[in-house]
Amino acid sequence: MGFLTKVKYNYYQNAFNDLKKNNQIKEIIQLFDHLSKNSNDIYIDLFEKNIDELFLFPDFNELFSKNLIWLSSFQNYDLKIIHLFLSHYFNNEKIVKLDKYADSVFQNSNSNISFEKLIQDSYKIQNKLSKKFNTLILENYSAFFASTNNKNFTHPFLTMCYVYVVRNPYDVYRELKLNSENKDQAMNILLNLDQQNQKFIFDINKYVELPIKSWDINLRSWADQKVVDDYRGLILKYEEMFTHPFDFFSSIILHFINNGLNLNINYDSIKKFIDQNQTLFEHRKETDLSNKEIKQINRHISKTLNDLDLEYSPH
Fold it and tell me: What is the number of structural domains in the chain?
């Protein structure tokens, strides 16, 4: 930052502080609007430095685009077909971008992102992403978290809505066994027995750390009624994608539209995707689980299944 730019920045920072001290919300909004049109670099720096303050006042919501859509699940396997569908559906819509959250975090940071750093910087990173795109759909596997310093996984000013896809945990374990070194590793991932966060590795010693947690904790975090209400959530069963694919995909697009995505639904496009990809919806033979495996999974998830009225079984 050059000398004159720094002088200007300090002037506007002091102006912001004075307006905030006197609770002049309207004038603060006008200040940021003026800077966004006339001094974009100062606007970006001032906005980022004071973003935590801006989140404290409901009236500041108009300063944010609220254009992030979260597509969440416990494992990436559960989102593969949905990713293909959304890529097909929004292929000609330049206003919608689809990306993976861990990738986006890595691309917008200059260092490794530990979980502690993610808590500290997630609002700033998500605000940068929000300002880059008209609408950004982010595939995510992190549990929703609320930190002690009042920084949550995301903020209502940033998020348009979310969809969480829940899958039969016994089938999740089967999938994990196919893609893990052994069944112990698969069980550890499903139940988070070592209580470790997951590191998404991008290069040598370059990573983003996300708190995936266990299958049941991950689900509970997104199915919590306050989270659903505050962030406009929709919980869908993975299995319905195979039994009623048209309704499943339609409900996703309608949820986006009902919560602010400025597009009309294209049912022909949904039908075309299903018709052209019938092999994706073929039933795959599942591997058997031992009684020992079933009992171990049951011990950890039975309460969650009961509390959320989920009738999942290993058969």
Answer: 2
Query: What distance in Å separates the CA atoms of residue 93 and residue 106, rounded to the nearest whole number?
Result: 25
Q: Point out the domain boundary residue: 34, 63, 92.
A: 63
Does residue 231 sit within a domain? yes
Structure tokens at 266: 């294209």
Structure-block tokens of residue 89: 């559906």
Tell me the pTM. Answer: 0.94
Domain closes at, from 21, 48, 63: 63
Q: Angle CA(300)–CA(302)–CA(303) in degrees, nearest 5?
A: 95
DSSP 197: P
Q: Both 164 and 16 in a single domain?
A: no
Best CA proximity match to 50, nearest among 62, 39, 63 = 63
Residues 190 and 45 in one domain: no
For position 202, what pLDDT does the model report?
86
Q: Which of 211, 205, 198, 210 is nearest to 112 (CA)?
A: 205
Q: What is the largest CA-CA distance in the chain?
A: 72
Q: What kind and span of H or E run contains 208?
A: strand 206-210
Mean pLDDT along residues 26-44? 93
Taking the CA atoms of residue 103, residue 257, residue 93 and residue 64 in that order, the dihedral angle to the nearest 10 degrees is -60
- pLDDT, tens digit (0-9, with 9 covering 90-100), for 245-256: 999 999 999 999
Whether 303 has a pLDDT exceeding 80, the answer reads yes
Cβ atoms of 286 and 174 closer than 8 Å: yes
The answer on pLDDT for 283 being more than 80 is: no
